[in-house]
Amino acid sequence: MLIQNYGLFWRRAWIHFGAGSNAGHLKGIKAGAKTSEPVDFREQQGVYCLYDDNFRLVYVGQAGRGNDQRLFTRLKQHREDFVAERWTRFSWFGIRQVLQTGQLKAEKLSAHPDIGYVLNHIEAILIAAAEPVHNRQGGRFGDAVEQYLQYRDDQNLGPEIPEMIHDLWKNSQAHK
């Protein structure tokens, strides 16, 4: 199995990049799970795609090859580099499996994966990342691959702007 899990079109604004002694996190919840604790994907290895406000692909990169930085660190770097003002969402495709404990399994890939399997995974990544209009079928990751939905840490991130505006408007109406 090449790709173990993935997240599509997560929001940059929902990443808790940390502050002070809080290192931050990159959490997601397994899609379709009725009760699930968030999993921190900050140490995930794989490939990722950055998108602008219109969901246009603006950058593709890899995280964690050899001793290179992992997903969270790469996203954090992109807040200050040449694409800093160009991306608001991202998708990621990870090679590290989520264990029953909610932790990521240590890196270990098969030395000789089946070529058909690898090609199916590469095609699936490209279809999910680019959403080409003429691809009628989705990508073929296989049944064991898990999709994760982004988890928003309201405690660390606070309310979103529309929610704050609504609360201000509601409070102003109450004082009339």
Shape: globular
Distance between the termini: 62 Å
How many DSSP E strands? 7
N-to-C SSE series?
A: EEEEEHEHEHH
* Biggest sheet, spatial arrangement of strands: 3-2-7-1-6-4-5
- Work out the helicity level: 10-25%
Put simply, the count of helices is 4
Determine the mean pLDDT.
86
How many domain modules?
1
Unreliable parts: none
Instruction: Provide the structure class.
Output: alpha+beta
In angstroms, what is the radius of gyration? Answer: 18 Å
Write the layout of secondary structure elements.
Blueprint: E1 5-11, E2 27-30, E3 39-40, E4 46-51, E5 57-63, H1 71-77, E6 89-94, H2 115-130, E7 146-150, H3 154-157, H4 161-174
Parallel strand pairs: 1-7
Antiparallel strand pairs: 1-6, 2-3, 2-7, 4-5, 4-6
Tell me about this structure.
The chain has 176 residues and is α+β, with helices and mostly antiparallel strands. The protein has one domain. It is built from 4 helices and 7 strands; from the N terminus they run E-E-E-E-E-H-E-H-E-H-H. It has a 7-stranded mixed β-sheet with strand order 3-2-7-1-6-4-5, sandwiched between helices.
In short:
The chain has 176 residues and is α+β, with helices and mostly antiparallel strands.
What are the key terms here?
23% helix; 21% strand; alpha+beta; 4 helices; single chain; seven-stranded mixed sheet; 176 residues; 7 strands
